[in-house]
Write a structure and sequence with these properties.
The protein has about 220 residues and is an alpha/beta fold. It has nine helices and six strands, in the order βαααααβαβαβαββα. A six-stranded parallel β-sheet has the order 3-2-1-4-5-6, with helices on both faces. The termini are close together.
């Protein structure tokens, strides 16, 4: 199998450690565990809008979900301030420890690196910039410019158009089986990052590569 020329990274949870967002929920008086429900709810509604050929920004959906979930969790007082406090945490999330070494190794192999997120490009810019990795990425892309959220085919096609390559020349890297499945159906090769020893669902398209760490990816692609 030939080596792909472009590595397309998902951002939220694949590069960034979203579990750290739980502290922001605790700051405003909500349980840290609410972060996982909130994130899943944002994805659900983003997918639903894409299914009916509509779209909304991650931040806008996220804010509306917070206005629903935080009061239910007993948060009182300045709701707008609480929403802003949680959302602003996205730009300062830590990257997983394997991200830096893996990105540098892939770049050293001569591969072109881009990100493709359902969130704002500015968030990825901030995360990569703070880690000193931004210069290693050719493009920082958001589905906001594609008009459709991943896993819609149009999102992956947008990345290919921006990079000037065919789908089969790209490999999508993600921790989310739904993202891996969507990319595979769009003609990309895929890499599932299974950091926590999870189960990959049988109903989803099988990943081209399965790795337990991003640091293993460089070796898989060079093989």
């Amino acid at each position: 199998m030939s080596t792909p020329s472009v590595v397309v990274f998902d951002v939220n949870e694949t590069l960034s450690d979203v579990t750290a967002l739980g502290a922001r929920f605790a700051d405003v008086g909500a349980p840290e565990s609410l972060a996982a429900l909130w994130f899943a709810s944002v994805l659900r509604d983003g997918f639903a809008l894409t299914a009916v050929r509509s779209a909304a920004r991650f931040a806008d959906i996220g804010a509306e979900q917070l206005r629903t979930l935080l009061p239910r969790a007993g948060v009182t007082g300045d709701l707008d301030g609480a929403v802003e406090h949680v959302l602003s945490g996205f730009s300062s999330l830590p990257l997983h420890p394997d991200v830096g070494p893996a990105v540098r190794a892939l770049h050293d192999q001569g591969l072109r690196l881009v990100t493709l997120s359902n969130g704002a490009a500015s968030v990825a810019e901030s995360l990569l910039g703070s880690a000193g990795l931004r210069d290693l990425f050719e493009h920082v892309l958001s589905v906001e410019d594609a008009g459709a959220w991943k896993p819609a085919p149009a999102a992956y096609a947008f990345a290919g158009q921006r990079c000037g390559v065919a789908a089969e020349e790209m490999v999508l890297v993600a921790v989310h089986p739904w993202d891996v499945d969507g990319a595979a159906r769009a003609g990309l090769r895929t890499a599932w990052v299974n950091r926590d020893g999870g189960h990959y669902p049988a109903y989803a398209s099988a990943p081209t590569y399965t790795v337990t760490s991003l640091e293993d990816l460089a070796g898989s692609l060079s093989g």
